[in-house]
Model the fold of this input.
Amino acid sequence: MASLAINPYSEAVLYTSSSSRDKWDNSANLYSLILSIDALERAYVSQAVSDAQYAPTCTRLLAQAKTSIKLVTGAGVAHPDDPPSVRDLDEFMKLWDLDLPLTSHRLSLGIPATLEHPGGGSSSPSGIPASDRSKNVAETTQAFITLMDALKLNLKAKDQLHPLLGEAVSCWNRSGGGGGEEGQGGQRGKLVGWLITLNQLKASDEIDQDQARQMLFDVEGAYQAWFRSLQGG
Done:
């Protein structure tokens, strides 16, 4: 029997098809993004980066990770050289022993910590020009009205509601209203909770009728609380 000739000086081949190579590259990209987000979260918690540095970087990394997750999950194993199949992000992190609670929370939420826990609770933030404050208030009003109109028009899909809700929370934060970290009566926290709920869904998934009704109720309550905070009430 002829022996198998092995050249010890040749480079080991990890995959034999371009499809397998792409899948491994996608997994590697997601892995590196998860580690990058974790490093950023730790730097933010330890005050090694400012809010101005953290927020745009986190937003960009979250957007990249969201796209990468779509490429990795549900791809299946069509070739022996393919990476193991995973159904969602949690399964991917367990597969590669990524025990990173800060990153898991940030990815599940889908927004930077500066929006989840905005600093300062004054309804009249100092250092903001009057023209900018008026612009922020107008943008926040428009964001809330657009979101409420979408719910009243019976829009229920994640890809329809998540961007509108994220914009409302972001505008609220910029406008300076809200009366503290959780907002008046914890209303901001309710909106953040809905962001988490929506972020668990696939883009085409929809909330049910009861959820839509409750979400509209919470958004209307948050809008009223935000408006009262502007008046110092």
